[in-house]
Amino acid sequence: LRRAIACYEAALRVRTEQAFPQSWAMTQFNLALAREKIGDREGAIQAMQRAADGYRHVGIEQEAQQAEAWLRQHIPMPSVPGGFLARLQRWLRPS
Fold it and tell me: Within 13 Å of residue 95, how many CA atoms lie on the same side as its CB?
């Protein structure tokens, strides 16, 4: 898995968000899954958020919703005002 993560990270240097936005989002999604499997929860969440944003940016709503569903399952949501993304941003914001 660590080798797969290194490969995904290398791919992201070529599959940039600007040049290949759909491929970039897909690679972020796969990177998130691999990071989750090795126990890198924070890295997985960050990559999955980038995937959700990337898919939405290119208009692939189904994949964006799938990424957000993953995020909802993996992030404990305290009772705070705002929608899902507002809670996620508060959770990811460093204290």
Answer: 1
